[in-house]
Design brief:
Blueprint lengths: L5 H17 L5 H17 L6 H10 L4 E4 L4 E10 L8 E11 L10 E8 L1
Antiparallel strand pairs: 1-2, 2-3, 3-4
Length: 120
């Protein structure tokens, strides 16, 4: 087994963390698409919308949506945005995720749009 001095391991760990944390922050297309989904959901699926209506709205846009009954969420990967550049590293693409929490009456109580990278 190869021995790596603690200082080298610390530097490598910090470098890797910084590289992964910075991934996607300069992806203007990703930020544009997140803003699009947030605006569309705020406008077309306002708080109080029936879960079935919200689910149909996503399906009309070609999105596969899951109803997670125990968590009381509608959950969907609505879009994939590639990381720009000739050799995207460490993330090759971003998945835009929509999570819509539901109340006990199966009505929406807001929405959450986030991005998760497909990374090394």
């Amino acid at each position: 087994m190869t021995y790596f001095p603690p200082r080298l391991r610390l530097i490598a760990t910090i470098g890797l963390c910084l590289l992964v944390a910075s991934c996607g922050h300069d992806n203007a297309r990703l930020q544009e698409r997140i803003a699009y989904w947030r605006g569309s959901l705020d406008r077309d699926v306002p708080q109080g919308t029936a879960a079935s209506t919200a689910q149909a709205w996503l399906q009309e846009r070609g999105v596969h949506v899951e109803l997670l009954k125990q968590q009381r969420w509608l959950y969907a990967n609505v879009e994939r945005v590639p990381e720009p550049g000739l050799f995207p590293f460490p993330c090759s693409q971003w998945n835009i995720i929509v999570k819509i929490p539901l109340d006990t009456q199966n009505r929406t109580v807001g929405n959450d749009v986030s991005a998760v990278g497909t990374c090394l």
